[in-house]
Each structure stands twice: as structure tokens, then as C-alpha cells.
Records
---
Amino acid sequence: MYDRLLNLASSALAKKEFKQQTSNLWVEPYQKAPSWEPCEERNVQSNPGKSVKSNGYILVSANGGLNQQRVAICNAVAVAYLLNATLVIPKFLYSNVWKDPSQFGDIYQESYFMSVLKDDISIVKELPPHMKSMDVEAIGSQITDADLVKEATSADYIKIVLPLLLRNGVVRFLGYGNRLGFDPLPSYIQRLRCKCNFHALKFVPKIQHVGSLLIKRIRKYSVPPSMLDTQLFGKFMENKEDHEEAARGSTKYLALHLRFEVDMVAYSLCEFGGGKNERKDLKSYRESHFPLLLARLKNATYISPPDLRKSGRCPLTPEEAALVLAGLGFKRGTYVYLAGSHIYGGNSRMEPFTRLYPNVITKENLLTPNELEPFRNFSSRLAALDFIACTTADVFAMTDSGSQLSSLVSGLRTYYGRDHAPTLRPNKKRLAAILTENGTIGWNSFEERVKKMIQQGQKVSIRSYGGSIYRNPRCPDCMCKHQ
């Protein structure tokens, strides 16, 4: 799609090959970033404390993949406190999309989760024996998305859910996800969400161990563990210094969450230069996977693919992602960890990217078949490895700021990263405007505009009203600001 720009990028990278790379690519560009830190005194107690008497039990069946389920867990913790209820360890619904039977204890450390939150809410592993046979749906205590609006308020829960809990002693949230808004909420509820996401959820040792192997092989040298490393790996990232390796130094790497899977591409309704065959292929995929989308489109105003692209509603292609990295000044030899599922179009679609950045690495080519075997056919456990690699990366780059993985990874890097965890968020609308000039724009101008676009997305800002505390924890309810 952008052959001329790719050639300019290739020439620019060749000229930089033997020049020293600018160090500011690997640090936060704004001095205010390290002034926000985790509040140590809140790690133990996040709210006024739990009530002695519980109003009943909350059951949660969380849908989606690993990252959607993580959000559901922390929302459920907040709701349990709000309703003065006992939370039963959440269950994960089996999805025909993700095809993963994993449950909470397969991903996260149950006992650690319960211990960290024990002073805030009561958590049990299962209902008491006399309630196990209860038909929750039959007694009217099952809550679905139809009963609660998206991002419902605390008042909605008090009005709709609490009466059922008081009457029946139990409530089940079926297909629970993003059903609790961020504002208005009491500060202690926000702090509890923060405590859950940033402190209570630790991966099980099996994931920690393989995740640590993954990162050690990328870095090629054991560096002193950071706060992020300690949170994600525990004892599995102990520093055993090798002076010979230390002299060579560790390898910095950039993790890229390239959201260009077929579902994302098809749902966007955009076109990506593949002509008639691509349009036919994506149309067929929509018909079989997104019937509700097609039904909605029948009554909607038609927006052409070029207009969708201009408005920033198209996922970035691998080619566009490579041009952004080149525009920022990342050298050709940069190690790029590629997170995510299968890229739509396979190797041919990735070719423009690997032409500029050949050192693409994945969990599949860093881990042995035996190390990966316990993770095969378990998409959430595989996703946990990508989550780890993205969170601990020297630089994290996303192509879709709306994805849950990008949101959660950004939040963890903000919370624990201090000024050493920069995140790159391309503004797709601005990038589309730049790329419309691909036939005439000079490389120096392209570089200047891309750098300005990224820097504006890296400005240090406090969480906005209604904004996700998981994505941006910079607020008094979650972090402390030091002058």
C-alpha cells in the first residue's frame, strides 16, 4: 500500500545502521512520569474494612478471554464490597471463540488473591453445601447484560441487585464483564479495584516460570529485577549475575501488540489493499461470525472504507506499524516481540514489516516445544505469556488503544514502571492523514509528524472522569504523586 514510503524508510534505516541509537526512545519523554508511584501504605488496607455480617453470596461467570476476565474479576470484587457480599471465586465461561476450559486457579494464585483482599471482602472457593443445589435462575437471582446497562453505576447495583441478594441470599452474574462504571464511585471502591488489579492477581507459578524463561531469552542477560518483574515473576526472576554476560549488556526489546487478526479486520469493514479477493473473504467471514453486525448495518448510514480510514477506525496493518517505528527512529536491528494471534494474510502481510525489522520474535520461537506443551490448546494461558512479554518490555507499542490487553498492559506499566516503561499509542486518525500524503511526503517531514503524534499520546495526565482506572491509574484513588 505504501511502497514509496517503505523504500524511504529502508534507506533511512540503512543510514542509521552504524549510528548510536537515541537513548530517549527507551525512556518516558516527560519528567512528570516518575512523580506518580504506588501508595505503599495502601497495599494492605484499601477501604474502611469489611462488615462482620454478609448480605449473601455473589457468583460470577466471566466471559471473554484472559484480559476481559481480569477486568470482570476486579469489577466483581468492587461489587462484592459495594453490596456487602461474600464473593465466590469467579468462574470463567467456556467460549466457542477462545476454546479454553481454564478456570481461575489455572491462571491466578487463588490463595494469594484471597489473602491480599481478606481485610476488604470475604472470599470463598465455593458456596456452602446447603446452597450448592439451588437453582439461581429459577429463584430470579440471575443477572445478565439485559438487566444492567454497560458501565452501570453503584446506584444501579443498589437498586437492581441488592434486593435480590437480600431476598435470596445469592446472586449470579452471568457473562459478567464491563458492567461497572468508573464514575461516580466512592474512592474506596476505586482503591479496591486498583488493589485487585495491581496487587491481588498474580499468575500461577507455572505461568510465572515459563514467562520468566521467555523474558530471559529475549534479554539474553539477567538484569536486576524491576518492580514489574517482581510483580509478574516473583521468585522466578532472581538475578544471578554473570560478569561475562554483563560486559556484553542485556538486549532491549520492543513489544508490539499488532491487532490484525481476521476477526478485527473483518469487523472493521475497512479495506487493506487486497482487492476483490480480500473483500470476498472478509464478507464471508462477517456472514458466518458477525450476524448481529450485518443486521445493524442494514439500518445504518453507509460509511465507505476510505472514510472509515480517514476517521481512524481501521486497524493498523503490519506495514503501517513498521512505518511508525521507522519514523520514530528505531533501528533495523531492534528486537520486536510480536504479541497476538495469527496475523490476517500471514507471511505475505508481514513481509513489509520484516523487511524493515527482521528481528521479529514470538513465544513460539523462543520457547521449546516441551516448554510450550502445557500451554497448547489453552488460549488464555498463551495470552498470559504475551501479557507478560508486553508488560515487561523496554517499550510497548500498540496498534489499537481500545483493546483490553493494551489497556491493562498500559496500566501496569504506568503503575510499576516509573519512568522506564514508555508506551507508544499511535493516533489512527492523525496517522491516516499523514499516510494520505504517501505519494509526496518527504521522509524528514514524515519522521517529524510521527514523532509529534506519539509524543502527544505520551503526555502524563491524571485519569479523566469516567476513564478506566485499569488503563490509567494516575489518580489519588490509586497512586500517590510526589513533588
---
Amino acid sequence: MLTSCFSLSLSLIMFSTRLHFPSDLDELRELAELLKFYKRQHTGYVLLLYCSAYLYKQSFAIPGSSFLNMLAGALFGPWHGLFIACVLTTVGSTNCYLLSRTFGKRHIVRLIPYNFICVRTGAILSEITSLDDIFSWRTLLQLLLIACMALLPGALIRRYKTEEEHNNYMYKSY
């Protein structure tokens, strides 16, 4: 058992440049041939590698699972591949949901103002064709509006905290 783990690890290190997520059909074909070769002696390890890669892509919503679905058919046959792909899609999307529900809300809500500012600024900059456009009233007003929107959440939080502290102080003093 230890020898097979060592030989598989060594083989994976030697062929690590060939093991990557496929981005086109030629790469998919090459990867399928390589994994079929490994599967002859190490079926369990290939299944574990495939499941880990699929769950990684699904759990973090990384595009490209259609290539992994095709790889499942090539490696495990149409019926076993279909079953494996369906189970992994279900588990991976559930993981994605649980990760988003647990960690996503506070990060996404915090990043909305920053992303809006960057996207809007990029849209404004894409319309600028000369240095004179930078100093046009329209561009300056748009950038000023974006700057105000960037400052608004901090100002509201500061004001809300000040009012809350004042109310707590008034409540405690009576």
C-alpha cells in the first residue's frame, strides 16, 4: 500500500506538467489518455483525484465543469460517469451554497461599494479619448459622485455609531 502511494505520488510529480484542468478538447483528450493509463493500476486514486478536482471546481463556482463531465464519460463510461457527475454536481453545488451562506454575505456586501466604484470609474475612463476629456464637467461630476458614494457608507456608519453611543449614554445617565 505504501509503495503504491509512493509510486503514484512520484508519477504525479513527474507528470504534474501534464495534469491540469483542460481548456479545450485537445487538452481534454490528452488528459483522458493519461488518466486512463493511471486508472489501469490505480482506479481508486484516479477516482479520488477526479472527485477532488470536480468538487473543487463546483464548490468555488469555477467554470469548466462541462469538460470534467466529458472526462467522466471517457474515464468511467457513460453510465458510471453520469452517476459520478450527478452526485459530484449535487455535492459541489451544495458546498458552494453553504460556503456562500456562511462566508459570502458579509464579504459581498462589503465589496459592493468598492466594486461599483472600480467598475464605474473604468466605464468613465473607457470613454475618455484625450486629456481634455478628463477635465470636462461631465467627467469631473461623475468622478465626484463616485467619490461621494465611496464616502457615504463610512459616514453613515460613523453617524449611526455616534447616535447609538449618545442614546446609550442618555439611557445610562437616567
---
Amino acid sequence: GHPPPRAWRVSSCHVLPCPWPACVPINMAALLAGARLVLRQGVRLLPAYTRRPSAVPVRCLSSSSRLLTLLAQERGSSEVESAPVARVRTWQDGLSIHLVGSRMKRSGRVGKQKLLRTFEEVCKAGKPNSNQAWFFLRACGSFMPEVPLLERTETVNNIWNKLKELGVEFNVTHYNTLLDIYIQNEHIFSPTEFLANMEAANVEPDQGTYQGLIAAYCSEGDIDGASQILGFMKSKNFPITEEVFNSLIKGHARAGDMESAKNVLSIMTSAGIEPRWSTHVALLNAYAERGDIESIRQVLNDSEVNVPQKQLTSVILALTKSGYSQYVPDVLEYMPNCISFSQDIINLCLTLMTQGYEDAALEVAKKLNAWKPADGNPDSQPGDFILRHCVHLNRPISVLYKCAEQLQAAEMHKQPKEFMLQCALRNSNIDL
């Protein structure tokens, strides 16, 4: 199913409560005249903070909250405080989620601690709504390249349990999101048990659920299990989409039947579905897991196949995790414009480093030697992100020195050891 509207958008209908005491006389005619003027001229006459509440400083919100509390105490009525303060808290929660969501959209990643702090803030204010629940669940997969796979799965399970404890009613979108996160995190689970849990919660699986279950079976090379789910889909008249065929390519390949994997493209064509780049990427990943660099080159050299360069990051990851990192430079040759999608490259490097593939991470990182971080800091250097992550992971000194020497030789950092020392001090890692 399609994800719900993003929960972090802050509605412009939230207006700060009136700051003047009730004793101040108000000229209603003047106010109405002003309102009519605004309606005629449009929102361009409104001050910026009214049109764009996401730009309001948090200190303004907290000041308004304190003001409302004082007014409530002076009047001796809790009713004065409850509704406005709740609105301000809702606005603050929306603002926090908006900031995290903007960072995720811009960089494709979010820090675990930042996400959990935001989650705790929202939970303290009351029960998260459906969209907020979806947002936090969705962030626990590939949006966390700096977090190990097992830890990511533990995080999403903890968030799920907390939401359940607070009384959040899960719908099919929440279950589909959890399913996607399990697959992204390579978490091994029972698809039949997952379905049973949905049925126990009176949540009806939809097309997205069945597609996710097929992907889960295919990740384990279980074609029989995937075929059973395909049967359910056909009985419910759900269409067999390109995503399903892509999963079947992976499933056949991981079952050791590469011929059937390649034959999926012919089956798609005969069914009237033209294979697009995502299908070719699925086939490339299958070749990568077998270390078949010649077949990878053949696909990428095919003039009729147009795979976006940034999608090849998954091929590099598949090669590396399958023990064929020596072919990473071959794939990088087909990615001459890495700087144009630098955040995808950074996320790939962070993922490789997190999972213990430092050599491959450094090889990929060198493609960014001409990249300048857009963080507004004139002292920032291209190699900052990978050195900082090395320190955060508390890698052995030998690994840190190797990273420092290679990045300095690639002209990606002028003083790598000094920078890592600063990072260690900021993390209070005295031993390092």
C-alpha cells in the first residue's frame, strides 16, 4: 500500500495563543477589517512565521507555553491551560518530526539516538498518532546506515512494543512497514507467523503485505514458500507486479538456479510487463552474489539497459558482502558522476564500514575526493564522515591508521589523525 501522508508536516492552522491579557480592550471592527484585508490580498501579507510555522524557533514555543501556564495560575482555572498547551506541545512534536524527516529526505539517513530522542518526546506528550507511528517504524531500516543490522531490528521492535503499550492501533500500513524493515535488516522471521499476528489483530493483509512476504521467502531462497503466497495473491485477484518478479529473481538465484532467475525477464515480457531498471538491478545483484563480473559488465554495456548510476550502490554492497570486493573498482567505472549523488555514496560507505568492510568503504569513498561537504563549515573535508564513523565504531588502531593514511594519500583529508583525536575526545573515548 502507499504510505500515509508524511506526519512531520506542520499545519499552518496552528497559531500561537494571544499574548495580551483579557483585560485589554479589543476593537472587533478593526480586527474584522484586518481579516477582510488579508482575505483580499492573500497570505503574502502574513508574517513569515505564520506562513511557515516550521521556521518558528523552539524558544518561542516554550515561551508561549510558560505564558499560558502563568495565565492559568492567575485565573485559577486549569481549563485555560489544557487546550492551548496541548496545541503547543502538538506543534513542538510536529516540529521535531519535521526536522528529523527533513534530514532523512536530504541525506537519506538518521542517527539512532536522534530518532529515539524524538520518539521519546512524542510519547511523553501522549499517544502518537497513526502517521507518527509509521514515521518512526519506517526510519529503522536503511535510513540507519551507521547502525548494525541486528541493532536496527531491536530498535524497530522496541518502538513497535512501546507504540502497542501506548494503545496505538496498528493498521495494514504499519504491518507492511515492519515487514519491509525486517527485510531491509536481513532479519530472519517466519512469514506465516507474521500473517498469524496480523489476523490475531484483525488486520487484513493487502497486496503490499503479500509482496513483502514473497520478498521475505525469496531472501532465503525459499521458492516453495514464495509460490504459496503467489497462490494467495491470485486467489484474491491481486496483480503480479514488477516488484514480485524482482523478488523471484533473487529467490531463484539464492536457491542456486541462475537460469530460472534470468528466465524471469522473459516471463515478464510474455506477461506484458516490460522490465525496467529495477529488474535489471535485481539481476545484477544476483550476478554480484555469485561474483560473476563478466555478466555484470554485459548487462551494463547493453545499450538497451539504462540503470541509474546511483542504483549500482546495491551491486557494490552485494559484491562485497559475498566476498568479491576485488570487483568493486570494476563497478565504480560505471559510476563517473558519484559527486552528483554524494549522499548515496556516503550512505554506502557508512553501511560497508558498519558491517566491517573497511577496504571496500575506502575504495568507494575515494570517488568523493573532489566533493566538498555542504555543511557551512569551511574546515570540513571530504574524508571527515568516514573518519568520524571509524572512531564512533571504536575500530582498532590499525584500522584507524589505515583509513587515515589512505584518505590523506587520496587528498581527502589533510590532518586525519588529528581529526580522529578530536572525534575521540568529543565521544569521551579516553582509551582511544
